[in-house]
Amino acid sequence: MKARHLWLLPLFAIVAVIAMQSGASAQGTSTAVPDITGSWERHGAGPGARGGGPRDATIPPPAPQPQLRPQYAKEWQDRITAVRAADAKGQPLATNYTDCLPDGMPTMMGAMFPMEILQSRGQVTIIEEAFTQVRRILMDKPQKSFEDVEPGFYGHSVGRWNGDTLVVDTIGIKENVRFQNMPHSPQMRITERMKLVSPNVLWNEITIEDPVVLEKPHTYTVAYRRMPDYTLLEYVCEDNREYADDKGLQKIRVN
Length: 255
Hints:
This protein is of the alpha+beta class. It is built from two helices and eleven strands; from the N terminus they run αβαββββββββββ. It has a nine-stranded mixed beta barrel with strand order 1-2-3-4-5-6-7-8-9. The termini are far apart.
């Protein structure tokens, strides 16, 4: 017995070493969750962002036009025409800003104000400086049904890491919370795929699905640049003098 056990010991040792190496190899090939905590600003947005030189690979391509079903496309175009005509007259139409209301989703993810991302156990929190908007993305949770979500400005967001990409599913956006004046139904679903394309540039591919309003999903990408030394400022809409008159025009109280 002793001789047999002594002969087997090296075999067990070899097996243990192989198992340890296999485990280490598996760990080495797995993708670690990236650290996206911190302050971020829009990257590559606004006039002249691309300039006339070589294309910056960290700037995403321009967003395509959404393809709405005919009846909604007319409503959308009519609204855009009305906004432009009112602006040309110097009498802009009232917006949610007139009533001190936040952007909501998905507009807040493309705003020109800085935002902060906080990664914590079970949740990713996104804070937009404008109006101090707060989104909570619940990690590794099942999504609710449309009927079980109370519609709001930010909806109900659940997320998961797929390798180095944060995939977020959002439903339950109020119908009066609109992206670029585009109408939507209660069945709108927003899918985001956030990924670092360089150490300090984060891309967010946003897909809007709405079987009632859209002919096909509308996908566009926004980019953010890391702001290592920036702390979000307080943004409170107080002492607001703007209001909407009975024609829907934005007015300012003079007293």
